[in-house]
Design brief:
This protein has 215 residues and is of the alpha/beta class. The chain has ten helices and nine strands. The radius of gyration is 16 Å and the shape is globular.
Length: 215
């Protein structure tokens, strides 16, 4: 049941400051990309299901990059969830929540991180046993100020905010007691991936790992 697996995912997320949110257009680049990020210290990765290469990318990372915990993001339907698990995803992330998705997640063998954008959504998910949620899109929803406001009425809920966060704002999020990690794409820029500039991605990953020292 997800009410048991979800808090375990939260504990995993506490061990890293940043979860790279990856869009993979070419599956053959998935392995060197994961290796570059891990070389910089980031071992929990989210591959978004926004491209046809995403599932194959997850499959290759699982098979060829030991030590990396790779999950599938942008999971919007039960079928996507089942396909991602079959590809080897170790956790699933959704930008939001639907009754059908949450119902299906109860039968999944991996943790599920559903998204919440309002207090009502966060309360509804907490009632179902979810104590770790994605907060998306973080910056448009009020960012650090919004999460500060949610901390008092929802003391038993923690968040992984994603959306519009960069290296200049990540530390402010990580200073919040109800934030376990932040999601971000800045550590793996599309231009660097296209050029196969793994040194740059490792450097950005190392800098992101340095954010683990919380204020």
């Amino acid at each position: 049941m997800q009410h048991l697996l979800n808090p375990r995912l939260a504990e995993e997320l506490r061990r890293v400051p940043v979860v790279p949110v990856l869009t993979i257009d070419d599956a053959k680049l998935a392995v060197p990309l994961a290796q570059a990020l891990m070389a910089g210290g980031l071992r929990i990765l989210e591959v978004t299901l926004r491209t046809e290469a995403a599932l194959e990318g997850i499959r290759r990372i699982v098979q060829e990059v030991p030590g990396v915990l790779v999950g599938a993001g942008t999971v919007r339907t039960p079928d996507q969830g089942h396909s991602a698990i079959a590809a080897g995803a170790r956790f699933l992330v959704s930008p939001g929540m639907t009754p059908r998705l949450v119902q299906s997640a109860d039968g999944w063998s991996v943790p599920f991180l559903p998204g919440a954008a309002t207090p009502s959504e966060a309360m509804a998910l907490a009632d179902l046993g979810y104590r770790a949620l994605k907060f998306f899109p973080a910056e448009p929803l009020g960012g650090v100020a919004a999460l500060k406001a949610l901390a008092a009425p929802l003391p038993d809920v923690v968040f992984c905010p994603t959306g519009g966060i960069g290296p200049d704002t990540a530390r402010d999020y990580l200073a919040l007691p109800n934030v376990v990690a932040v999601g971000g794409s800045w550590v793996a820029p599309a231009a660097a991936i296209a050029k196969e500039d793994w040194d740059t991605i490792t450097r950005l990953s190392r800098e992101a790992t340095g954010l683990a020292v919380r204020i």
